[in-house]
UniProtKB/TrEMBL annotation:
All copies of domain HTH araC/xylS-type, residue ranges: 148-246
Keywords: DNA-binding, Transcription, Transcription regulation
Record lineage: Bacteria, Bacillati, Bacillota, Clostridia, Lachnospirales
Top-rank taxon: Bacteria
UniProt-recorded name of the protein: AraC family transcriptional regulator
Coiled coil: none
PANTHER family: HTH-TYPE TRANSCRIPTIONAL ACTIVATOR RHAS-RELATED
An annotated Gene Ontology molecular function: DNA-binding transcription factor activity
Gene3D superfamilies: Homeodomain-like (1.10.10.60)
Organism: Hungatella hathewayi
């Protein structure tokens, strides 16, 4: 059984994370093994054997463990957590191994979350994780008001349709190329990648509300259900069809206390 939580600044999974092929995600991520060591292989056969790791966005890798059950945090690139990861611990490196003592503390905190109160306890657990990883300090707010406005507009939109980029550019009074460049410069992620994440989040929320995969995909702004499934596999390593019936999905809307 997979557990998925969508938060304003990240998506969390408790899952059997089986990705034998080299792949990369659109987000920075944190991976914690719930059992034995992980073997993380990067391009060029560079390897890390550890119990927990932080990996930058768009870094090709594969993760394997004997039992494969892991906690995975996919971090929104525009969030305080992601920006703090840029400064320390990543500081320009593609990955950072997490101290084994911290991993054990995170495991114990997760085990203490009661199943029948998981939705109410998860926010506190995730805050504990980010505090232990020193990712909870204040960070510089995205300075350009045009990008701030765009992020708010995306968050509040009912769906992310094909005209979204045009509307964002019109609101910012910039051409598509200039606004896309500005967005990546300010957030560290491409506009198209960020919109894909936003559509995934909305589709998961709609499925949580009882919509079918097809309806959730179309209403979130994906062209077809197959596009939704492909994006879900690329981003989470889970097919959209696996979410229905085999997953507990929670949409937790509280804001992080340490957000600036």
């Amino acid at each position: 059984m997979t557990t998925i939580c969508t938060m304003p600044d990240h998506i969390f999974l408790d899952t059997e994370y089986k990705q034998p092929a080299i792949h990369q995600h659109l987000a920075k991520h944190i991976i914690i093994s719930l059992s034995d060591d992980l073997t993380v292989t990067f391009e060029g056969e560079r390897k890390a054997v550890c119990k927990g790791i932080m990996i930058d966005a768009n870094v090709p890798h594969t993760v394997a463990g004997r039992e494969n059950r892991m906690l995975v945090f996919l971090i929104d690139a525009t969030s305080t957590v992601a920006r703090n990861m840029n400064h320390d611990p990543l500081a320009g490196e593609p990955f950072k191994v997490i101290d084994g003592r911290i991993v054990e503390q995170i495991r114990e905190a997760y085990k203490a979350c009661l199943p029948d109160r998981f939705e109410s306890e998860y926010a506190e657990f995730s805050e504990f994780v980010f505090c232990r990883l020193s990712l909870n300090g204040k960070s510089t707010i995205i300075p350009d008001p045009r990008v701030q406005t765009a992020l708010g507009f995306i968050s509040q939109s009912a769906d992310i349709d094909g005209a979204m980029i045009s509307r964002l550019c019109e609101n910012a009074h910039l051409s598509q190329s200039r606004f896309s460049h500005l967005f990546k410069e300010q957030t560290g992620v491409s506009l198209n990648s960020y919109l894909t994440l936003a559509k995934l989040r909305k589709a998961y929320q709609l499925m949580l509300e009882g919509e079918t995969i097809t309806a959730a995909a179309m209403n979130a702004g994906f062209g077809t259900p197959s596009h939704f499934s492909a994006a879900s596999r690329k981003y989470l390593g889970i097919a959209a069809s696996d979410i229905t019936g085999r997953c507990n999905v929670y949409d937790i809307k509280c804001q992080r206390l340490f957000e600036s």
